[in-house]
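I am writing to request your help with a piece of structural work I have in hand. I am sending you one protein, given as its amino acid sequence and as whole-number tokens for its backbone shapes. Kindly check, if you would, that the fold set down in the tokens agrees with what the sequence suggests. You will find the record immediately after this paragraph:
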Amino acid sequence: MKNLYVVIVVIALWCSYVFASAANTDSLLRVIERRPLGIATVTALNDYAMVLHETFPDSTRRLAERAFALADSLGDNKGKALSLNVIGVSYFIQNNYDKALSYYLQALSLREKIGDMKGVAGTLNNVGMVYRDMKEHGTALSYYFRALRLNDSLQNKQFYVRNLNNIGVAYENMNLFDSALTYHRLSLELKRALGDKAGMASSLRNIGKVFGKMKRYPEALAMLQEGLAMPEAGKQVRALILLDIASVHEATGELDVAVSDAKTAMIFGRDLGSALLLQNGHEILARLYAATFKHELAFENFKRFITIRDSLFNEASTRRLAALQTNYELDRQRTQIELLTKERALQTTVRNGLIAGVALSLLLFLVSAVAYRNKRRSEGQLRQTNDEILRQQHLLSHQAQEIEITNTALAENNIELAAANARLTALNTEKDEIMSIVAHDLKNPIAAVTGFADILRGADLSHEDKESVLDQLDIIGNRMLGLVKNMLDSHRIESGGVEMRIVQLDIAPVVAMSVDMYQERAAQKNIMLHWEEPRTDTIILADEQIFNQVFDNLLSNAVKYSPHGKNVWVRIRHSSDEEGHSSLAIGHLSGDNNSRPMTTDHVTNDQALSNHVTNDQAPSDQVTNDQVTNGCLRIEVADEGPGISEEDMNLLFGKFARLSARPTGGEHSTGLGLSIVKKMVEAMNGRVWCESELGKGATFIVELPKGG
């Protein structure tokens, strides 16, 4: 029943793939039939060919050759290069590596000549795949890294992901499994972000295969079955997954299941005309039949495996097959001679028994001696030739490994240099921002202090005027003190100098007190502060001093940026009060270009590498254990100010952010406040974001874990 289930699943996936391919094919055919002959026709023919390439590689080649002829007549070099690449793909599917490499290199040369760098990157990747299947992994890796660097410079994410996948395969074939898993996992995450489900199936297969080689069989089987269940996977990928599943079942002793998987994979291999799939299938079946003592079937599959393998990869194998064939013919002829001689001897036994017997013995001796001498001579020559070929192959392999190690080291050095340059650029930008603050935000207040000091020294002022000057000095001093304090707070948080004291904190009285303290400042601008008393408990897990600083900053900003005569609302709610609230947010999270709330959970090494390489991954949606168990409370501060533009949203929680909105009462802003708020909230296992529509005010939301 288990075998029958696997067969039914595979057939269902294949049917869905064929129907989807047929729909694409019909649309492409309509394009071809509708358009006059021209460059668009070249593109359509090549697109049509690629739709068929996995299922009908011969048809793919014929269509691409037709496209090449049309492109040549039109002088369309880009179309010619694309056609050459597609022809190479058709040969690659059928494992004809010499022809595939020939057409790929022609396409590569033409694309470099016309400056089609995106095409150059794709063809470099294809050349690497040919060398991969020819077991020259060092050469393959050098082509993959060239394509990776080019796709990175072109911001070509889809092909960048493919390069990562192929680099993982190369490391896997070199038995560098940890490096292989790193690149395969990174490739899978990027494919998931791009919505490339067919590519995800391929990455799942690669991860499962690596786990299998590491003898982590349950993890291997889970990954492989997940990839097999994806209907978007092509026929070739499904066949490869089935062979890998068969290998896992073989390793775990489920030999009957493994035989069924391998046979199903070989059905796909025959449909595709893929010698490589058939070779791998026969190899697995030979092992499985031998393990179950079905020696005749094992020997038959082993012979087919050897025949296909040797025909694929080297001339030496062809010579060995020729030698075996020669020996076989000699044995057959010797047997025929023996039978013929015995038959004649029997017919003439009475009359010429002694003579026939002597003649027959002599003949057999001579034939055997000649055959033996010829066989030894042939074997000696073949052995010498094979030894020389193996020596040359070993030398080339050693040189390729040295080149590969050098290229890998250079690639890693380039990545490290790029990361160091990025860090230096960021530090230089921050230094410029600090110098700008010193130059502008401190210079003017210091000059004002000096001026007021001169006034106090040189003028005969009344008591009221002196009090006014002192008030101004107090305001200026507090402004400079606040600026320096913000800069020190930012540095202290970034350097890890903040010591958190997380306690059970009832925030309702804390928020109410802060609102009362801001009533006078709000009244100066005729702004109404509205405090909505919460209906439930308001205990959270937080540091009291840091929470006060966070809320004070948000409330201060609301008053600072609200026009005269407007309203500001302060609310405390449970996260579940507004179902789906965060997923429909108009604004952005703290500094990220994504509208989902972000937590500060631990990030794995794979996730860190992914963020380092792509710099465009969405934040994690996971929350801490306390949040999962007890839920969260939201503190919302909403105003009727000018709102925040989409452009400003991208900078909102950034350090030294200078936004288009300006304080409405002449207040001062350094651009550090919200950056500090973000870091403090995240340090308390919380999250902060803003929801706003330009012209309709803004709502800043802080979400922190509940206590209790």
